[in-house]
Amino acid sequence: MTVSSILADKGPDVVTVSPEETLLDVTKLLDKHKIGAVLATDSNGKLAGIISERDVVRAVARGGPEALGEAVGTHMTKKVVTCKKEDRVNSVMMQMTEGKFRHVPVIDGGKIAGIISIGDVVRRRIADIETEWRAMQDYIAAG
Ligand code: AMP
Predict the structure, then answer these.
(1) Nearest protein CA to atom 6 of ligand 1, as residue
(2) Which of 14, 16, 45, 55 is at a distance of 20 to 30 A from 111, taking alpha carbons?
(3) Residue identifier of the C-alpha nearest atom 15 of ligand 1
(4) Atom 21, ligand 1: which residue's CA is nearest?
């Protein structure tokens, strides 16, 4: 099972910010879209970083509420682990587990093609296990 099968369900939509926007802007986007991370893109739409709720929490914990006025570029993670559509979901799950992050952008032909979250991965794994289980029950019943 590949990343493209998850994208086929959820689509390629990704919420982005510019590195000049503030952490307060990020909190509004996270709240509005009910998500845990947004991608930062440069003026050409290229991936510049990722900023998640964890980064906002860390910034406020260390800098107080004034940190909410600081720029995304100061607090985002610039070295982003990405995946490709043809990557296997299991390998993306391993990357998330090893790197202790819950979001992985999908890059296709140098462009952002979607984002996979740990929630998407778990949802897909459960659906697959249920399908296998039903097939097994049908097989047993037919015998
Ligand atoms: P998350 O678990 O996604 O909320 O992110 C936890 C931390 O990892 C935050 O500092 C994020 O900026 C960072 N992070 C999230 N996704 C990635 C990724 N794909 N590559 C590198 N760092 C990431």
Answers:
(1) 101
(2) 55
(3) 101
(4) 80
Pocket flag, ligand 1, residue 102 (CB < 6 Å) = yes
Dist. CA 5 → ligand 1 center (Å): 22
DSSP-derived pairing of the beta strands 111-117 and 103-108: antiparallel
Give the pLDDT of residue 83: 98
Contacts of 90 (CB under 8 A, 6+ apart): 1
CATH architecture of 3-142: Roll (3.10)
For residue 35, which phi and psi values (nearest 5 degrees)?
-130, 175
Q: Compute φ and ψ for 21, nearest 5 degrees.
A: -70, 165
Mean pLDDT confidence for 36-61: 97
Going by pLDDT thresholds of 50, 70 and 90, the confidence category of residue 128 is: confident
